[in-house]
Specification:
The structure is a single chain. The protein is mainly α. It is 56% helix and 3% strand. The chain has one domain. The chain has a two-stranded antiparallel sheet with strand order 1-2. Strand 1 and strand 2 form a beta hairpin.
């Protein structure tokens, strides 16, 4: 997948939403919900770029969700931060699985388990998780 960045659709001149972490068939409905709540592409980009730090601060006692457009907007933005985090977690798990599978070509499961600090059975479980799903090449903050 391409890096997460805001782009402009040349034909419509409409900003595209930073939703590469979501399946393509879900993006239109997500954009509709975000737009209905008054969320802008720039707000989504900022929320993803800071990992939800500003949303967290706004949700704490004494904070205010109004700068984001209120509680609904914050809930929707937080859902996208969560979806991105889940996507990146899956990507990291796939990377780990591929690396462990490669280690098993050269080392025993006991040696790999010892090096990773896990059980031998866990090594086999990890090595089976190397999916070939499409993942983001660069996280939002990896472009900074």
């Amino acid at each position: 997948m391409t890096p997460n960045a805001l782009h402009v659709d040349g034909s419509a001149g409409r900003p595209l939403w930073q939703l590469e972490h979501r399946p393509a068939d879900q993006r239109d409905s997500i954009v509709a919900r975000l737009e209905d709540a008054g969320v802008t592409p720039a707000q989504l980009s900022a929320a993803l770029a800071d990992g939800g730090d500003a949303l967290y601060a706004a949700s704490r006692p004494g904070g205010s969700t109004e700068p984001f457009g209120g509680d609904l907007a914050v809930a929707l933005l937080a859902a996208e931060v969560s979806a991105l985090a889940a996507h990146l977690n899956s990507r990291a798990s796939a990377v780990r699985a591929r690396a462990v599978d490669a280690l098993l070509d050269d080392y025993s499961a006991v040696a790999v388990a010892s090096a990773l600090g896990v059980s031998r059975q866990k090594v086999y479980d990890i090595s089976k998780g190397g999916t070939v799903a499409a993942f983001l090449d660069i996280s939002p903050w990896g472009q900074l």
